[in-house]
Every structure is written in C-alpha cells, then in structure tokens.
Amino acid sequence: MLSILGKLTRWSLYTILALFLLIVAALTYTLTCNDPTPLPAEEQAVLDEQILGQGEFRYRIRRDKLNVPEAITSTWSNVHGLTLAPDNSIYVTYSSWYGHDDNTRAMIKFDKDANFIGTLGDRGNAVGEPHGLDGRTEQDGNFYLYHTNNAGRFYKTDTAMNEIWSNDFPESLTMYGRGFQKFRTDLADWAYKTFDNNLFSIPDAYSPCNVAFHPNGKDLYMADCYSGSLVHKFDANSGEYQGLTFGNTKATPGLFNTPHGLIWDTREGRDQLLIADRSNNRLQYTDEDGKVLSTIEDPAIVDPCDFDLWNGYVLIPDLSGHLVIMDKDNKVVSKVDVKDVIGPAGFPHPHDAIFLENGDIVVGTWFNGSLTYWERLSAEES
Fold first, then answer.
1. φ/ψ of residue 374, rounded to 5
2. What distance in Å separates the CA atoms of residue 55 and residue 140, rounded to the nearest whole number?
3. Which of 285, 314, 286, 287 is CA-nearest to residue 300?
4. What is 43-376's CATH number?
5. Measured distance CA(336)–CA(55) in Å, rounded
6. What does the DSSP 8-state code read for residue 257?
C-alpha cells in the first residue's frame, strides 16, 4: 500500500509540475513572442542604404537576394544555422514554434546566386528546436549535413535529408542526470502531438548546439551549450561517443558558460579548436583533448555565437547585434552593426553567419527570425 501511495504521490507531483510548465510556457510565449513590425517602406529604404563595417570589410544589405516565401517567414521563430556547400549553394535551418502541419519544414536551400530553391526534409525535422547546421565534404566525395537540435537530437544526413545516423542523448553520456528526462521527453511528445507545437522544445539535461570537424576527417566535437556547457567528442562516420568530454559552467579558463559555437581553426600556423564561450563574452582555443591553449577577449566580442573562415579571416556573428571579422592574427578589423539596418524592424540578434565565396555574408537572426544578404563593397565604394 505504501508503495502504491508513493507512486501515486510521485505521479501527482509530476502532473502538477507538468501543468505548471504548460502555464509558464504559455505565458512566456504570450508575453515575449510578438510578430516583428515592418518599418514604413521609405524609412527602411533609408536604413538599407547604410554602409556598415570598416576597412576591407564594408557591407550593404541586398534585398533582392535570399527571398523566402511568406508561407515560411510567417511561421518561423528563429533562423538558426547556415552552411555553404562546395557548389556554393546555401543551406539554412530554422525553427517554428507553433502551428505545425504536414507542410512544416526546418530546412531551406538556395542556389549559388542566393535564389530560393525549396525546402528540404519533412515535418519530423522540425520537431524540437532545430539549431546548428554544419556541413563538409568527406572522403567519399559527398557533402554531408550535421544537425544539432536543442531538444536532445543529433544526426547526420546527406543533402537530400536522408539520415545517415542519429545519436539522440546517448546512454554513453553518463555525466548527465536522467531522472526527470524521460518524463519531460514524454511530456514534450504529448504536447507536440496534441497541440502541433514545440511547447517543450528544450530538455533540461541535453541541448546539442553546433559541431566542429577535426582535420583528421574522423572526429567531430559537439557543444551542448544550454545544459551542461560541455563539449563532447564523436565519431563522424558512426555518430558514436568517443569517451571525451570537457568544459562545465564556470568563468575560469578551460570552462565555459554557453559554448554556443565552435570550429576547427585550420588557418596557417593554427591547428586548434576555437570555441565561442558566449556567456563569458570571450573565445577560447583548446587542443584536441580539450586543454585550454589561449583566450581572446575584445570589446567587440560580447555574445559570440558561431564562426566561419574565409581567406585567413574569421567571421563571428554576435547576438548583441553585430558581426565581428578578425584577421589572421585574430585582430578585429571590422565590426558590422547589422542591427542598425534590420534591428528596427524586429531582427536585432545575429545568430549565425557565413562567408560566401566572394566575401559577401549571409546572416540569420534569432527571435525573431530573418535571413539577409550582405554585399561586400570594394575599397573605392562609399
């Protein structure tokens, strides 16, 4: 009898907690999720003429590129991840919180001229909170996509979104507590099936954010940014955990507070993992075993989100509203305040950005979602 009462008491507590979470989620959405309000066309046109950045990296927005159908932009909440394929086509991942149906997707493809090609995947790819998107050409000559989803999902696909492997919250990650995780996952699944939304998209224990590829072609590093502030090593061919985890939530060197993005810095003279230690307002370099090698702090580095490399330069989207470009010596050579142009319409938070082959930049924003194209100007233009 006592055992039964104990179980009933436990499930009653879970039920109360579930109802509490539902109420909190609904209130949070109601209070914070408002549609962006476009500026009057003439006001936005004036902003669009601004030239941003300094030196060799000055940019102006191009509204004629990266146009996305309203059926997508009217439902997405965040534009989260970007990657460039070898043929210069552009892949984008985004999340949509509410109103999922059989037409809901989470991936878009553009051609090399930034023209919309179409959506990819299916409704299943939109479940949870699609976040990071990283791609590379591998030994078989094919280009693959690596998807990180804040709802504990981590998987690899080809460019047609056929799954190669998935490794969602593997049991081998024994450093995580799992006591409440299954209940939370079951609750999230129930909410999604019942209300067609991602009401509980982020689990309490495991939130994959982005990956970095070791130059050896075999190993990859995945950052859990929102839960444990940890970086894990996986096998790129199988998705299996390789027994290496480093980090934790602290401000001391070698530890992180929201390791949101990461990339293997392969520029000349470097062979190190570069990590965006976002909530510590800095960058950190580690070796392949996670040993901290150096840190980078600069007034322009406020909330660094991710990285891209091009011709010896590093591009860093900063959630506070700008892009940072560093040279081969990691000196900041340009700060591109994109929020000055797109912020007034409700898109002030760059979440990911990539260089294109010619030095132009694509930017995706978080809450609210937007996708914009930024043309690099020649030195003589003003």
1. -125, 120
2. 40
3. 314
4. 2.120.10.30
5. 11
6. S
Residue the block writes with tokens 């080809």: 158
| Cis omega (within 30 of 0) for bond into 149 | no
Closest-CA residue to 65 (of 382, 363, 322)? 363
Calpha distance 217→15 (Å, rounded)? 46
**Which of 101, 145, 105, 151 lies closest to 131 in space, CA to CA?**
151
CA distance 319 to 303: 5
Burial 131-156 (b: 16+ CB within 10 A, else e): bbbbbbeeeeeebbbbbbbbbbbbbb
The answer to whether the beta carbons of residues 129 and 149 sit under 8 Å apart is yes
Longest dimension (CA), the chain: 84
Q: Are 330 and 337 in contact (CB under 8 A)?
A: no
Q: Which residues pair with 365 in a beta bridge?
A: 350, 370
| SS3 at position 237 | coil
Structure tokens at 277: 């230690």
**121, burial (CB in 10 Å: exposed 0-12, middle 13-18, buried 19+):** buried
The rounded average pLDDT for each run of 10 residues, N- to C-terminus, in the chain (382 residues) is 47 54 50 72 97 98 98 96 98 95 97 98 96 98 97 96 96 90 85 86 83 98 95 98 94 91 96 97 97 97 98 98 98 98 98 98 97 91 58
Read off the pTM.
Answer: 0.92
